[in-house]
């Protein structure tokens, strides 16, 4: 079916793309050959012949030679501002041993004698056998300056003795009442000065905040440099033209950095974001501040529209909240980070303030608690177009899946993780057991239930956050280079290519109240377009992840072009 729009020949376009396979992702999933762009907006979608009416003496014309054109991709749960870590911290991503971690940290310490503290990111618990690393390993490198290394999930922190001293964490301090775990050295509980056991050097979220809150924060200038790095090295090359930044902090520099970039013309993606609300925060005071901050950010490119809630943690830290016990810890199923009554009250207050609700829910009990609280919001505050979302959704009770559609809750999924990889074998199987591990990361079920499904990467947890990888793993439940075995994870949850494309485009736009602006190729919308080297609608699904973006346009301007295009 060919898309057809009324021509406006009285004014030529700035750019005309011709001879493409334009998959519009509009409500009818129409296709076209050409797109005309003027002043950053799409003014025509249709045939090559009619597109000629938009070509004037100053029009740039790009013949695509039949290549696929899609709307720009939308990452509906990422941490783009956390790219600050890539510039100012030790990089531990992809290293394969404790020795490699220590060598990289030692090299960084020697290169930064002026630093008051040493931060790092990216160590993998699986590389370390699932256990937490020890403070003594860092003390052997640096004992005078605090050191704190975040794992690749963002939920476990490896610290040295100086960092523990700074945060006043010792054997007489219990695990924080707000949740989280301070790992202890075996055999030290009840010894002199160690009523609760000597801290080993690993802190499980949110206990990690005892240290991170004691360290000086990054400035807006730091965050700006990180966001610019993300756009140049991640967003543009991967065709990402919109993102939901899921972990902004009230009083932090992230929002200021985004606003400055938007004001200066340096923001090359639509950004919606969430400020994190913690159970221990004073709700009326926090909400008053959040609303005031929200009102200061008026750029259409950046709007902190949401509030982030952490309903639980992660399996590898034993902080995910499950309905049944952990397979390897009888009698233990984790605990909620929010008491249910308090969560419902906070949801209702946030909703009354006109803010969106975005929940980290990884375990089935955490997801159910969030759904229960959202149901209370509807009863308490009445109907409105609120579009709450729950993200991660690693293990979900099948009985709760229809509730997403019933309550108009967006399933914000990470399809990249729906494979049998090292996490599956080293973490999911021991903690969940085979039956639950084999039923992780539902996606097709959400589509079938009629829920809105928005895909995301949770970058920096997923590196690279290539939507083409996400589409392939959503379709095959298997991904080259990730799957340890030639066996899909829960094959009944395989999705179609059009479903996955929608989840990374128009459905992501809907999840973020951006569907009137972007997410599909239609007249009047922002010219956020990508050109691919592979027609992922027609190729073997196993080849989707091997494709690449050749051209990324944001508001009609080129933000990335492959050297071979």
Number of strands: 24
The helix tally amounts to 17
Spans of 5+ residues with little confidence (pLDDT < 50)?
Answer: 1-9
Main β sheet profile? 8 strands, parallel
Identify the overall geometry: globular
| Structural class estimated from helices and strands | alpha/beta
Overall pLDDT level: 95
Helical residue percent? 25-40%
CATH names the topology of the domain at 311-495 as TIM Barrel
Terminal CA distance reads 28 Å
- CATH superfamily of the domain at 311-495, called what? Metal-dependent hydrolases
CATH architecture of the domain at 311-495: Alpha-Beta Barrel
Identify the notable features of this structure and list them briefly:
single chain, 565 residues, alpha/beta, Urease, subunit C, domain 1, Diaminopimelate Epimerase, Chain A, domain 1, TIM Barrel, 8-stranded parallel sheet, 17 helices, 24 strands, disordered N terminus
């Amino acid at each position: 079916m060919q898309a057809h729009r009324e021509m406006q020949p009285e004014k030529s376009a700035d750019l005309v793309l011709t001879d493409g396979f334009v998959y519009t992702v509009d409500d009818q999933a129409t296709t076209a050959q050409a797109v005309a762009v003027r002043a950053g907006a799409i003014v025509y979608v249709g045939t090559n012949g009619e597109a000629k009416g938009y070509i004037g003496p100053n029009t740039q014309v790009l013949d695509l030679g039949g290549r696929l054109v899609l709307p720009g991709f939308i990452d509906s749960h990422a941490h783009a501002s956390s790219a600050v870590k890539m510039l100012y911290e030790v990089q531990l991503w992809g290293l394969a041993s404790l020795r490699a971690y220590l060598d990289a940290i030692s090299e960084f310490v020697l290169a930064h004698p002026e630093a008051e503290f040493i931060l790092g990111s990216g160590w993998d618990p699986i590389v370390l056998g699932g256990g937490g690393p020890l403070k003594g390993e860092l003390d052997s490198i640096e004992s005078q300056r605090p050191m704190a290394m975040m794992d690749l999930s963002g939920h476990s922190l490896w610290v040295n003795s100086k960092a523990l001293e700074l945060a006043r964490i010792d054997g007489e301090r219990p695990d924080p009442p707000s949740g989280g775990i301070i790992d202890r050295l075996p055999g030290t509980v009840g010894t002199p000065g160690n009523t609760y056991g000597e801290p080993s050097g690993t802190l499980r979220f949110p206990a990690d905040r005892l240290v991170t809150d004691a360290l000086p924060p990054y400035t807006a200038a730091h965050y700006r440099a990180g966001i610019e790095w993300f756009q140049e090295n991640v967003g543009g090359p991967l065709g990402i033209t919109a993102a939901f930044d899921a972990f902004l902090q009230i009083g932090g520099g992230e929002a200021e950095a985004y606003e400055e970039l938007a004001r200066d013309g340096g923001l090359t993606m639509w950004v919606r974001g969430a400020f994190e609300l913690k159970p221990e925060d004073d709700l009326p005071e926090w909400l008053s501040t959040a609303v005031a901050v929200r009102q200061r950010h008026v750029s259409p490119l950046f709007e902190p529209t949401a509030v982030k809630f952490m309903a639980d943690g992660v399996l590898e830290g034993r902080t995910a909240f499950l309905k049944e016990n952990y397979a390897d810890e009888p009698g233990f199923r984790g605990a909620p980070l929010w008491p249910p009554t308090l969560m419902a009250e906070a949801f209702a207050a946030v909703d009354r303030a006109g803010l969106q609700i975005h929940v980290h829910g990884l375990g089935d009990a955490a997801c159910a608690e969030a759904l229960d609280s959202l149901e209370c919001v509807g009863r308490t505050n009445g109907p409105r177009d609120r579009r709450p979302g729950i993200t991660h959704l690693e293990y979900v009770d099948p009985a709760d899946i229809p509730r997403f559609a019933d309550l108009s809750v967006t399933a914000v999924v990470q399809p990249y993780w729906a494979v049998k990889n090292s996490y599956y074998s080293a973490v999911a199987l021991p903690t969940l057991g085979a039956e639950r591990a084999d039923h992780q990361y539902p996606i097709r079920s959400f589509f079938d239930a009629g829920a809105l499904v928005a895909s995301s990467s949770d970058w920096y947890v997923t590196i690279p956050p290539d939507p083409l990888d996400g589409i392939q793993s959503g379709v095959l439940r298997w991904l080259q280079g990730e799957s340890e075995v030639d066996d899909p994870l829960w094959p009944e949850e395989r999705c179609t290519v059009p479903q996955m494309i929608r989840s990374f485009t128009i459905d992501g736009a809907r999840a973020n109240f951006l569907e009137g602006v972007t997410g599909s190729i239609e007249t009047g919308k922002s010219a956020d377009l990508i050109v691919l080297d592979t027609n992922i609608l027609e190729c073997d699904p196993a080849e989707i992840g091997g494709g690449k973006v050749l051209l990324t346009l944001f508001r009609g301007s080129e933000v990335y072009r492959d050297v071979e295009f």
